[in-house]
């Protein structure tokens, strides 16, 4: 999975062929490796997957939902209510995490990171800081752009460029996925339950524009 070039990938496959039973290799070949373009690094250049290259996140979400639903015999209303509770529970946890991240005004990462403090997820700032540390330790390979294209945060090479220009990070160095305040996507209408008189007004408005036969069915 971590082969960064096709030739490394095929070398690894050769080595596995020499070391694993053929039944195992047959299983891998017919079940997983035919999808190699979806999860082996060599084919993921330019694919922004934020580190999710397995199905565990989806399986985790499924397991959470099943924990809330508990039994397989609930009626539709019970299931609907339970799913709604599961979602609002997760949303509350996410909001709490974002509020916590926004309050972390200083992680001790220095002036290069200053413009991103409280604006970018702490989880990814930690990963970016590891790249920053690497950038201060001597010579590096040529940048293939994989890290930034896959994960959406600055790689060691970006930090070298910043250091050379005596510059600092900006939030645009990070994919908006990692921003604690999401860019505006337009106003989302929050639906609230209409009052009884609003409902009556709606019925009246519909009734008024009906043909006489339609008025009767409208009242029904
Ligand atoms: Zn790089």
TL;DR?
This is Protein FAR1-RELATED SEQUENCE. By secondary structure, the chain is an all-alpha fold. The chain contains 9 helices and no strands.
What is the approximate shape? extended
Q: What small molecules are bound in this structure?
A: zinc ion
> Percent range for helical residues?
40-55%
Q: Which regions contain 5 or more consecutive residues with pLDDT less than 50?
A: none
* Structural class assignment: mainly alpha
β-strand amount: under 5%
- Output the helix-strand order: HHHHHHHHH
Number of helices: 9
Q: Whole-number radius of gyration?
A: 27 Å
Distance N to C terminus: 63 Å
Mean pLDDT over the full residue set: 86
Please characterize this protein's 3D structure.
The longest helix is centred in the middle third of the chain and has 28 residues, at about 75-105. Among the domains are: about 5-45, no CATH class; about 55-105, no CATH class. The protein is about 55% helix and about 0% strand. Helix 3 packs across helix 4, helix 5 (about 120-135) crosses helix 7 (about 155-165) and helix 8 runs antiparallel to helix 9 (about 210-220). The protein is mainly alpha-helical and about 220 residues long. It contains nine helices and no strands. Zinc ion binds near residues 143, 145, 147 and 155.
Name its key features.
220 residues; mainly alpha; 9 helices; 0% strand; extended; binds zinc ion; Zinc_finger_SWIM
Set out the fold topology.
Elements: H1 6-19, H2 22-31, H3 56-69, H4 76-103, H5 122-135, H6 146-151, H7 156-164, H8 196-208, H9 212-219
The structure holds zinc ion.
Protein name: Protein FAR1-RELATED SEQUENCE
InterPro entries: Zinc_finger_SWIM
